[in-house]
Specification:
mainly alpha
Length: 57
């Protein structure tokens, strides 16, 4: 996994976390759900990249 990929995944996770927290603060269930989905996608991308790295090594 390249450093750029790691940084993008981390940024996506933070963005999702921020959306979820704003949704919590404003009682906006749609924003909460959108944030959770973005966090999950970032986690999945990171896991996929780690699996690729494991097979390369």
């Amino acid at each position: 996994m390249g450093a750029g990929d790691k940084m993008k995944n981390a940024a996506d996770k933070l963005k999702g976390d921020a959306k979820e927290k704003v949704g919590d603060a404003t009682d906006n269930e749609d924003l909460q759900a959108e944030g959770r989905v973005e966090e999950s996608k970032a986690d999945l991308k990171q896991a996929t990249e780690k699996a690729k790295d494991a097979f390369k090594g």
